[in-house]
């Protein structure tokens, strides 16, 4: 169904109902002002053109109203995070009351573990996937230590088998069969940042719950990329960032999900702050802590409105495009990338990412045996922004909102040339 030709790529772009969304983003350019081929939305998504206008609105209202902007700004700052909730909830498949934008990813992961990792002497172990993003591993290890456990004992890695690159669900089942009674928490990345593998979230959740464990997901590479259906799969909690596929700018605020079955659970310990307190009495500043119901009750601080404005601009683009359409395009676009790479018939190339679209988002992790970082340098010189992981993997993520079939076609042509010259 795919053809290796520029004409085919162009015709796919013409038929693509989302093609015009590309014009709503700002692309980095070379010295001649030519758009670079940007395939790095898994690391930092591009800036929507709307973003500066949304941020400017808040700067204007700040200058016009000062502190009164909390209530008098066009978009009042006190409830500002509420403007983001519905759109964000759709993107992660949650009910609005289950989602809140706050803090940043690793901070949210810790706050969630304060509530959801409550180990006992015998049930204290945490499972993560091996090759989890370093920040997640550090966070989990430090939680183990904080509770007096040795990470060497308490941290269980779900690993690919010898000679393989991907994790198999059967192996997670095996770990649970052997050690399920000791496992307190499964904390898994929904989509692995290195391999691009998306895990079966529903099956993992069910498995963890069978053994009385809590199941949480890090959606850093999932949010805005795959549909995790957090509510329906019954995940206990999830955290994510908004600067990768969610295009909300470097270091922008993170997202957090708490399943509604925990919303009134007073058994859960939590670290609290005034922003999680009942909105009606928050400013009386006297009352004992009275948690808001739902994910909002985990908020601590009043959030950065400038960052929220950027998230809002991006979510408006997602809302306009429709997440189902975005995902549909991603399946086609990444399929085209895979087809073109396989068509190079280069024996040195091995795509690590699963070929089943259900088991991946838009990223392909391409291993080039015998390559070193020079490959990445050469691609950059050729006008491609991509991402290199030692020792020999290049990660390419065509983001369906702003990448085209033509981008993907030109990338593979450049890859071929660089490989030939290298
Ligand atoms: C990007 C990423 C992070 C980054 O964490 P921050 O707290 O936002 O700096 C953490 N974990 C994973 C899996 C990531 O992909």
Lateral arrangement of strands in the main beta sheet: 4-10-9-8-7-5-6
Distance between the termini: 31 Å
Can you say what the CATH homologous superfamily of the largest domain is? Answer: Type I PLP-dependent aspartate aminotransferase-like (Major domain)
Q: Could you describe the largest sheet, including whether it forms a barrel?
A: 7 strands, mixed
Supply the CATH architecture of the largest domain.
3-Layer(aba) Sandwich
Uncertain stretches: none
Structural description of this entry:
With about 425 residues, this protein is of the alpha/beta class. It folds into two domains: about 5-35 and about 320-420, Aspartate Aminotransferase, domain 1 (Alpha-Beta Complex); about 55-320, Type I PLP-dependent aspartate aminotransferase-like (Major domain) (Aspartate Aminotransferase, domain 2, 3-Layer(aba) Sandwich). It is about 40% helix and about 15% strand. The chain has 14 helices and 15 strands. It has helices at about 5-15, 50-65, 70, 80-90, 105-115, 135-145, 150-155, 170-180, 200-210, 230-235, 305-320, 325-345, 375-380, 405-420, and strands spanning about 25, 35-40, 45-50, 100, 125-130, 155-160, 185-190, 215-220, 235-240, 255-260, 350, 365-370, 385, 385-390, 395. The strands form four sheets. A seven-stranded mixed sheet has the order 4-10-9-8-7-5-6, sandwiched between helices. It has a four-stranded antiparallel sheet with strand order 11-12-15-14, with helices on one face. A hairpin with a 3-residue loop joins strand 14 (about 385-390) and strand 15 (about 395). Helix 1 packs antiparallel against helix 14 (about 405-420) and helix 12 packs parallel to helix 14. It is globular, with a radius of gyration of 22 Å. The two termini are about 30 Å apart. Pyridoxal-5'-phosphate (PLP) binds near residues 135, 189 and 193.
